[in-house]
UniProtKB/TrEMBL annotation:
SUPFAM superfamilies listed in its UniProt record: DNA/RNA polymerases, Ribonuclease H-like
Domain Integrase zinc-binding: 294-344
Molecular function terms, GO-annotated: nucleic acid binding; RNA-directed DNA polymerase activity; RNA-DNA hybrid ribonuclease activity
Protein name: Uncharacterized protein Mb2253c family
Keywords: Endonuclease, Hydrolase, Nuclease, Nucleotidyltransferase, RNA-directed DNA polymerase, Transferase
Alphabetized Pfam families for the sequence: Integrase_H2C2, RT_RNaseH, RVT_3
Organism of this sequence: Cajanus cajan (Pigeon pea)
Residues annotated as domain RNase H type-1: 141-241
Domain (Reverse transcriptase RNase H-like): residue spans on this chain: 2-104
Domain of life from the UniProt record: Eukaryota
InterPro entries in UniProt: DNA/RNA_pol_sf, Integrase_H2C2, RNaseH-like_sf, RNaseH_domain, RNaseH_sf, RT_RNaseH
Amino acid sequence: PDPSSPLLVYLAVSAEAISSVLVQEKEGTQTPIYFVSRLLQDPETWYQLIEKVALRLVHTSRNLRHYFQSHQVVVHTDCPISKVLGKPELAGKMMAWSVELSQFDITFKPKGPIKAQCLVVFVNELHPHGHFEEQWWTLHVDGSSNCRGSGAGVILEGPKGIVLEQSLRFRFKASNNQAEYEALLARLRLAEDMGASRVKYLTDSKVVAEQVGDNFQVKDHNMMKYYHAYQKLKTNFKEVSDWRAEIRAFLINGTTPTEAKRLRTQASRYVVIAGQLYKRNFSTSLLKCLNSAEADYVTREVHEGICGMHLEARTTVFKLLRAGYYWPTMVTDCAMFVKRCQPC
């Protein structure tokens, strides 16, 4: 290969194997130089997608070390591996991989078009597809506080099986709700670093869920600081999930977006009372509409709370409706919740 031109690396992963191809572009044509592939060992098959992609890059750098040392290397992938390697504290094995790769001149770019026809089938079939930043990311937040201290556990779930986990320990005294806010803010910052533009959050704190949903008034001075910090971070995202916002804005302000006809038909089933959105129902009274965080909280309480009996998904949905709650995806959400419930 020409030492004055960078080398391009395309990564491919599957359930049982990882592969990569090293190419160089000359006069608008990509010429293959080397192909590397190996089967995953049994423990490695349980790796998350982003860990498999990182492992593929590390394995390629080890096998083609002389190429990596003598050339600038451009890795083409849509997977946010560069952002994860920049935060190696998110996973233990990432620390060693990040240090090992830091000795090479590696840059990351989106996959883009493939100019070598012989690579099209290889990359298109096995390459992690999709613009991860434009898809929904889910934040799972759980904070706690006791006499020994306070901390939080946070999980960020991205598309295509990307899962980032982190535990936090605070060196200051904090209440349970403050710990929940700290966890939420930490995860929003991480989602921002990952380039996520659409996020939805799940928390087991009713106070935090209602406050960030603008349903509860924030009176405590310290909580007000957390609330304003959340509102400031929220502006960095295109959308923080709340399916009620569009309908509520239409009913209150009469705004008519591009899909005005669809929204007008949908909004006829809802009513706003004291700023809260309710759904009209034939067999019961008005149903209070919940966002994703509130829905997760009430599902947890109904299914496994003090009066919970760990009922099946269909019965859980029926109990939620009888309790006066509603959100559009409650059937599928309850099914997934029951499926994840260990006692069930």
